């Protein structure tokens, strides 16, 4: 039977899962493998559940017909457990965790984790299970995300890049840390620094940022098309990965593919991703699981180190991407599970 892969749920908008689905579809098209979003299609030979879905009954029916159910897992919702969260939002966050866990334990025939960090987190919170599992990092088109192409770094100042999805006052922590980092570079190290923010940032949050640092040079790029990201990566000296406990952030592997070094705290999967001189991952300096304030000084020192040795870091970043994060490698690894 000719393989046909069903992707659920169908995703649009911004975010890591949307980016993954688009890249995976690109890989399927290149290999001439059929795909659909219709979970009830009897021609499906496998279902790739990107996180979770509410279509539990349809998943069970597919599994009962012998269709492979492969669940792709990153991390899980956790902020609602450590910070004040409106009851409806906290309930929704925990419900989504339980849906993921139910699919993982009772419906998935195979599980793919985005990183060893993600795997270990699920093992710790919801116990190890006997379902076959493996770790597959996200991938990127190395011919599109490349150091060659448009986009030049400035010679007269240091450009710090932050790439996020949606930012609002309720999830501003990473942006606030980036502001504190830029302020440290400017006032303690005398660096002429520009902070470039890519993503949807609410006006209220912008006002809050300017109240924190009225003299900081900030360029708000807003939402940009995905094909613009490589040129933006090439114009910066370093990418700050702001997410706490990220499973495998696409912005990081895209940046490395473009030769852009990474600076980040040692949370989530960052230390296993950023290796071989591709950047600097520094201690958080506090309990990030409790959202305590980080130590900015090591982060700033790492930026200074990268600034003074930018070319070797850029070469190492590209080399790391070529070794671990190619789109073809990712797609092949998924197909080994989906189409055995």
From TrEMBL:
Domain of life, source organism: Bacteria
Protein name: Putative glycosyltransferase
Keyword Magnesium: no
Keyword Transferase: yes
CDD domains: GT4_PimA-like
Keywords from the named record: Transferase
Signal peptide as annotated in the record: none
MF terms (GO), sorted A to Z: transferase activity
Pfam families: Glyco_trans_1_4 (PF13692)
